[in-house]
Amino acid sequence: MSLDNVTPLPSTEPEFRGESLATEPLRWEAPTGARAVAAAGRSVQSTAMIATGRALTRALRSRGERRLRAAIAAETGPVKVSFGAGTVDLPGWIDTDYTWRAPFCLDVTRRWPIPAGCVDFIYADQVIEHFPLEVGRAVLRHAFEALAPGGSIRLATPDVERTARMYLERDAMCAAHVERHRSRGYSAEHPVDVLRITFCENGHRFCYDFSSLESELRRAGFGDVGRHEAGESDEPAFGGLEARVNETEVATTLAVEARKPTV
User: What is the pTM of this model?
Assistant: First the structure.
C-alpha cells in the first residue's frame, strides 16, 4: 500500500524545531506517511471511546435517577435529600451526586427528575460555591421547586467575610488555619494562603458571605433565612451534618438555612 497520497492529519503532539523556544518562533509540521495513518487510527479510536463512555454515562445516570425516584416514593417519613454528597453517607438522607458512580443521580442545575414539592429537607455541604453565580441561581430555583411548602434547605459553604477577617487579623486562629491546610496536603506557608486556597483552588467559582447568600435565597423564593454555626441547627434534621467541624473550619464556614413558604 502506498502512503504517498494520504492526507496529513494534525497531531496532538506538535513537532517543534529549534533549540531555543524562547528566541526562535515555534513551527508545527503536520505528520506525513505512516505517522499520518497512525494519527488517524488514534483519532478514530479515541472518538469511539469517548462516544462509548458518554453513552455509558448517560445510561448509568438514567439508572441513578430512576433509583432516586424509587427511593423518594418508598420513603415513609420526611424526605431528606442531600446533593453533591460524593462518598458521604448521611443516615436518614438520600445522598445524591452527579456522577455515574452515584447510586442516586441528581443534576441540580436542571429541574429535578421527581414530582415538584415532594422533598421536605435539602442539604448541601461545600457545593454551592462550585457553581458560577447564574448556575447557582438555577440550583436554588430547582431546589425551591422540589421542596414541599414549609420544606427547608441548608447550605454550608466557605464564608468570604469570616475568611477575610481571619486573614486581616492574622492571629493564632489564622496560623492554625494555615496549618490545617498544610496538614491536608495544600501548599500553605503564609497567612494569605487562607484566602488563596478558599478563593482560587478546589474549583470554587463563586464564594458567598451571608448577605449575598441570603439575597440569592430570597431571590429564589425562600423565606425565614438565617445563619448557624457549622454542626448546629434549631431543626433536628439539620443538626450535626457538616463534615468540617474543627475550630478553624467552623470559624470559616457559612451555614445558612431557609424555608419555602407555605402559601
Answer: 0.79
